Every structure is written in C-alpha cells, then in structure tokens.
Description:
The chain is an all-alpha fold. It has helices spanning 3-7, 39-42, 76-92, 94-104, 117-135, 146-150, 219-227, 232-235, 253-264, 279-298, 301-306; strands at residues 49-51, 54-56.
Amino acid sequence: MDRMTRRRLTRQIPGPAPQQAATRFRGLFSNDPYECMTLICLCPFFQGIIQENECILSTGYPLGMAWRKEYRLMTEDERNRYHNALNALKRNGVYDWLSRIHLEVSVGSGAHSGPGFLPWHREFLKRFEIALRLIDPYLAIPYFDSVMDSYLPDPRDSIVFSDLFVGQTDAFGNVVTGPFAYWPTLEGRPTISRHKTLKNESTSCPFRALGQEGQLLTEAQVNNIVAQNTIENTLAFTAPQVGCPYRNNYGAIEYVHSSVHLWIGGNMKPPSTSANDPIFFVHHSFVDYLFELWRQMRQPREYRETVSKLAFRNIDFQK
C-alpha cells in the first residue's frame, strides 16, 4: 500500500466489543481491546470482518501484525503519522491514562526492580501499541537503538533529539520544539523536561544538555545481554532483599536500560514521571527488542515445548 493510499484511509471509531469471555479464553475474546492477545480478538474494535482467519478492515486491507522499525528508518510519512497519532492520544486523554498507569507502578510493585520488569513492560507496550493502532491501524511503535548514537563523537548531536523526532529543549530543559512541544505533564508542568543546560557549558548546541549522567547503550552491553544463558540473569533480581540467593547482576537489561533514562534526564529520570516523555516508549521498544532477541536465542520453540513445560506440570489450566 503506497503513501497516497494510506493518506486516503478513513480512520474508524472502534466498534462494539464482544461479550465477556471465560477466564481461560482471556486475550482471545474480550470486551476491552487492551486485553486482546490476537488480531482476531482486536477485529471487532476496528469494525473489521473476519474472513479465513484474517481481520479485513473497511479499507479492504487486513489488520496485520505490528512491524516495529528503528525510529530513524521510518519513512517521513510513517514518522509523521506516528507523531500525529501520539498527539491525538494526548488530546483524547489516552496517553495520560497510560502514563498514569506507569506512574502508579513506579514503586512498590512488581513492574520494577525485579523479574517482572521485562514482562510487565512488554504488556504495557502492547497496550500502548493497541491505542496507537486504534488511531491508525497501520502503525507500530518504533524503537530507539541508542547503541547507534554511542558511536558518535558527541551523542548529544543525535538527530533523534531534533525537531524531526523528539524535539529540543530551551536553556531550562523544557521541550519547546518538535512534535511534542509544550506537552503538559501529569504533574502539572506546562512542558516535558529533559536535562537542562549547565551554566558553565560551552557547546555549539547550548540547549542540548543531555548526558550529564548515565550513558547510552553500548555494543558490549548488548553482547553481554544476549550471552546470558539463564533466565535468572535476564529477568534478574535487580534489588535482591536480604537472604535472596541471587546476587546483583549489573549487566542485566533493567540496570543498563536505566542508564539511558539517566542520560536523557528530566522526566525520564524517575520512573514515576518517565512515561510523560514519548521517548520513553521508543526506548522501551528497544529494550523489548533486546529481550526478544535473547528469548529467540535462548528459549526457542523446542525449548518451550520440552524443558519449560515441566514447570507447569501441576497446574490445572481449566480453573
């Protein structure tokens, strides 16, 4: 489907939901699109028609799987549509609703500082992606591969932090340009914030004061992530309590991902405010990509069908 065809598409308001399904069918049928785990489950919310196990939209095209690209590899049309969809979600309150969900699990929950980090954020990204696709069914969350920027002489010069992508800040760290300029935050600030300029900083880009702490991901860190051969070192106990038999693994995905949050700073620094900034989602999309890369290498289908099933031998799935 070419660019002009996509522009002519009429966005559909989600249709009526199916009836509540039994617990064992959760994700296959639902009255809430965000609980869906299959395209067939999502189909009614897009006013699609199921034909031969496909969901055909009113445009005549099927509702396909979301195909995530590196942010900078999106076409100009794809990037503009992504930014437009984000702004639509901001206007209708869905973006802030999702951001608040992340705020509410920022402390004292299983979403951070432990084995639940990766699976929780995978589900969170799925729900965010469904929200995007209810605006534009041909979108997917791009990912920000910050390893690419770690090779730059000055990573702060990355095009990602330009008006074409996530925008730039003023001298006080307020995002005032780009597609997310002057986005109010959940906390009542009039703009998203990132690292502000240091008074003694002398640079050709005086307002790009990123990188005051933390670091972007590196090739060595990615290689270490995919080299882990146990699930304990991947899901990881990143805040083990006294008596926990597992030690800190400072190469775990959760640890190294946090360095990027620190490098960007501002709202991205604390988990309670990080989802205010749309760069949160493209960063976590890359984190999820690394998790999937590890999973495909270390837990292929034959592993899941043999070794993994032993852990479930005493579970009655009919309950």
